[in-house]
Design brief:
This protein has about 550 residues and is α+β, with helices and mostly antiparallel strands. It contains 18 helices and 13 strands. It has a 6-stranded antiparallel β-sheet with strand order 2-1-6-5-4-3. Strands 8-10-11-13-12 form a 5-stranded mixed β-sheet, with helices on one face. Strands 7-9 form a two-stranded antiparallel ribbon.
């Protein structure tokens, strides 16, 4: 029998009963009540067992219950089992009319087949008619036999069938509601299963993608517990010693140094809500140490709250080794250049100091040789500075206005030769904590670039001012400029803009790398704003300015 005949039979037990078991289970309450009445009523009135109608109804109930168990309902047409509740009306009528004087309320037992018809969902119109007609015939039958159907009795006989019809309609509505809810639950269950399958597929896809990456990826919650990690990250853990907490790698801030403080560990910093990139640390210890570049990005929840972080570990040992070899090579070569250049410059100075023995043409040639030797010496110094692992800074209270005036005076000849007009916009006195020699180098580099990259002349403006405890230094030109992409690359060693290469402007691309290192060594920043064909502005910010009281005291 179809499941829709049993809308309330959703339990695991009922699903294993089979159709005959279910039919017997639905018939059992009525049969049990009838048998209890048959067993107890004679004790009150023995004449009940002498009623042919009652005994016939009792026998019919026994036959109906046995039929539920013995007839193979699975082989019969759909709805055939509904014969049972229909015949129940006859059996209840026989029992009721056979004991109407003793048990007049037995007609209420018609509620059992009425409920069965309501919950079956079969033949709804016919079931509705039968739920009224069956009980009505039960109470009407004795009046028809006695021909005593008066108007008052007709109204009295309508009470029970009307109640049964109300029960039928109520159960029918409840059954339909249950069916609709079951369908909705089934639909939602299918949606949940589909979402689970989709989520599982996405997890497999994500795991496959992450495991193909050659970088370690780990996601942690706000407490630092690992939510996700890929194969490469697990290899990092296997290659390094672990802390007692089991998830933090043993890291060092540089090769061969002591372990990184816990507060500086990339995962700990990410848990604290920090976002960073290109943070170089060393993994492991001894000769097997690996250089790892780390980056972190916070995760947010559905309401925008901090929900953890994703940390990426990228093994850059080969790159760091290659850069070290490159820097060692450049350092060794420049050191080898430095000694003969010093000797060349010294001997050229000695020769040039002997005016009586030189002709004007020879002196001019020697002057050209000396200028080029000085240029080569400056290039060697820049190379040495660029590859130096550390930069010696001797910061002290420095009067920047005087330093800027001095550097502008030195650059004026170069500017005049290039047709450039130098403009100064800074106060008479401006103090900052800085290394005068290194800051002079910064100003020289910026001025030299501004003049060099202004082939058509124009103004080069140098500005300086104090701003909320910091000193701002700007060098602005109206030269050839750069693209936005190039402004992010100019601080790399040996980088030169495309426009500079096309214009055949000399240079090796080390000046700005050195300038940036000096500025950052002071704890400051340097920013470039440029537009191709419109010029460039470099802004240097030194974070610590001397108070006005100190400057006035000097």
């Amino acid at each position: 029998m179809p499941e829709r005949l049993w809308p309330l039979g959703t339990g695991r037990f009922e699903r294993h009963l089979g159709l005959r078991g279910k039919a017997a289970m639905y018939q059992l309450p009525l049969s049990a009540v009838i048998f209890v009445i048959a067993a107890t009523a004679p004790l009150v009135n023995p004449e009940l067992l002498q009623s042919g109608l009652f005994l016939s109804g009792l026998l019919l109930h026994i036959v109906l219950f046995a039929s539920c168990l013995l007839i193979p309902w699975e082989r019969l047409p759909t709805g055939a089992v509904l014969v049972i509740p229909l015949v129940d009306f006859i059996a209840i009528g026989l029992c009721r009319n056979g004991a109407v004087e003793i048990l007049p309320g037995m007609g209420a037992l018609a509620a059992f087949p009425v409920i069965w018809l309501a919950v079956s969902g079969q033949l709804p119109v016919t079931a509705t008619i039968l739920s009224f007609a069956g009980p009505y015939l039960i109470v009407l039958f004795p009046h028809l036999l006695n021909s005593s159907l008066a108007g008052a009795r007709i109204v009295e006989t309508l009470l029970l069938p009307t109640m049964m019809l109300a029960i039928f309609l109520t159960m029918r509505i409840l059954t339909l509601r249950v069916r609709l809810e079951r369908r909705e639950l089934h639909r939602k269950a299918e949606e949940v299963l589909a979402l689970e399958a989709e989520g599982t597929e996405r997890e497999r896809l994500l795991a496959a993608i992450l495991d193909t990456l050659d970088v370690g990826v780990v996601a942690v919650d706000t407490e630092g517990r690992t939510l996700l990690s890929n194969r490469q990250q697990q290899l990092f853990h296997e290659a390094a010693d672990m802390h007692d907490d089991g998830h933090e790698l043993r890291l060092s801030c540089s090769k061969g140094s002591t372990p990184l403080p816990p507060s500086q560990h990339p995962i700990r910093r990410a848990i604290n809500g920090e976002s960073f990139s290109n943070n170089l640390v060393w993994l492991g210890q001894g000769g097997s140490q690996r250089a790892v570049s780390t980056a972190a990005q916070p995760m947010t929840g559905s309401r925008g709250e901090f929900a953890g972080a994703v940390i990426v570990f990228n093994d850059v040992t080969d790159l760091v080794t290659a850069l070290t070899v490159k820097e060692d090579f450049v350092s060794n070569v420049t050191h080898e250049f430095s000694t003969p250049l010093t000797s060349i410059l010294g001997h050229l100075d000695l020769v040039l100091e002997s005016p009586d023995t030189l002709t004007s043409a020879t002196r001019e040639s020697l002057g050209v040789a000396r200028r080029n030797a000085e240029r080569l010496s400056t290039l060697v110094s820049d190379l040495l500075c660029a590859v130096s692992a550390s930069m010696n800074l001797h910061a002290k209270p420095t009067e920047l206005s005087g330093l800027l005036t001095s550097r502008l005076r030195s650059a004026r000849t170069h500017a005049e030769d290039a047709g450039v007009n130098l403009v100064s916009e800074f106060p008479e006195r401006l103090w900052a904590i800085a290394d005068p020699l290194r800051m002079g180098q910064v100003v020289d580099n910026l001025l030299s670039n501004a003049i060099k990259y202004s082939p058509d002349g124009g103004d080069v403006t140098v500005r300086a001012r104090e701003n909320k405890g910091s000193v701002l230094l700007e060098v602005e030109d109206r030269g050839i400029g750069m693209t936005t992409l190039e402004t992010g690359l100019i601080y790399g060693r040996f980088f030169r803009a495309h426009s500079a290469r096309e214009s055949a402007i000399p240079g090796v691309g080390l000046g700005l790398a050195i300038t940036k290192a000096i500025v950052e060594g002071h704890g400051g920043t340097i920013h470039c704003a440029s537009s191709l064909g419109s010029g460039t502005t470099f802004t240097v910010t030194l974070p610590t300015a001397v108070s006005r009281a100190h400057s006035s005291a000097n």
